[in-house]
From TrEMBL:
<protein>
    <submittedName>
        <fullName>GMP/IMP nucleotidase</fullName>
        <ecNumber>3.1.3.5</ecNumber>
    </submittedName>
</protein>
<dbReference type="Pfam" id="PF13419">
    <property type="entry name" value="HAD_2"/>
</dbReference>
<dbReference type="GO" id="GO:0008253">
    <property type="term" value="F:5'-nucleotidase activity"/>
</dbReference>
<dbReference type="InterPro" id="IPR041492">
    <property type="entry name" value="HAD_2"/>
</dbReference>
<keyword id="KW-0378">Hydrolase</keyword>
<dbReference type="InterPro" id="IPR023214">
    <property type="entry name" value="HAD_sf"/>
</dbReference>
<dbReference type="InterPro" id="IPR036412">
    <property type="entry name" value="HAD-like_sf"/>
</dbReference>
<dbReference type="InterPro" id="IPR050155">
    <property type="entry name" value="HAD-like_hydrolase_sf"/>
</dbReference>
């Protein structure tokens, strides 16, 4: 994919599904939590799955959706502790490290902008060690709005001094890309391979990639080669 990097100063990147394999999150919320909840309440796994999915969806597009303290209280489970039980599934997508190195080499401002709760951020930054690659990390919980809210991107400017017309956003959520487009962010990229367990489907509305290597010009391939052929972090 051809991107004119001379027109871009700032790169905003989502975390789960964009930089990190969303298989961890899907497994955790749709399999691991129902299993633990069913055991605690002496109910069937099938009932637990149906009940919890309905409960989760009731908080979709709100900050509660990713608030670990909210879900710990609501489910009477230690959600941060349960996440540590399956943290071995946390993984960086292939070619992410190459992309971050490319951006750093070209002096771009690189911001991780995520809906994730601070406790989730702490766990994933410790596991992946990608934190130092960013100019900074902003959680929607700091902003006070989820990215699905079209007021988010304007409020983000209170934390990040960015020009929407010179900014690229990478996301695995078409909803979040839509709110960013409404605000005026010019370069919008949809990550179609958000989980290693799915068959990627390109967006019909936004430019789509499977891996970030598709945004690295061929002439820059040598810059990023030091991070290995697959680009994943241990």
């Amino acid at each position: 994919m051809n991107v004119d990097w001379n027109q871009i100063d700032t790169v905003l990147l989502d975390m789960d599904g964009t930089l990190l394999d969303r298989h961890f999150d899907d497994h955790f919320w749709l399999e691991h939590v129902p299993k633990r909840w069913a055991a605690k309440h002496g109910t069937s796994l099938d009932h637990a799955c149906k009940y919890l999915v309905s409960l989760f969806r009731s908080q979709e597009n709100t900050l509660n959706w990713t608030d670990l303290d909210y879900w710990s209280d609501r489910l009477n489970l230690d959600i941060p502790l349960l996440k540590k039980e399956v943290e071995h599934l946390i993984a960086v997508h292939p070619f992410v490290m190459e992309f971050l190195l490319f951006l750093a080499h070209h002096n771009k401002k690189i911001w991780l902008v995520t809906n994730a709760h601070s406790k989730t951020l702490d766990l994933k930054m410790k596991k992946t060690l990608i934190g130092p690659y960013f100019t900074g990390i902003i959680s929607a919980h700091q902003v006070g709005l989820p990215k699905e809210d079209n007021r988010f991107w304007g409020a983000l400017q209170n934390f990040i001094p960015y020009d929407p017309q010179r900014t690229l956003l990478g996301e695995d959520s078409e909803t979040n890309l839509s709110t960013a487009k409404e605000f005026g962010i010019k370069f919008l990229i949809y990550i179609s391979r958000f989980s290693s367990k799915i068959t990627p489907q390109p967006s019909s509305r936004f430019s789509s990639i499977e891996y970030f290597r598709q945004l690295i010009p061929e002439r820059d391939s040598m810059i990023t080669s030091i991070s290995g052929p697959e680009g994943g972090a241990a």
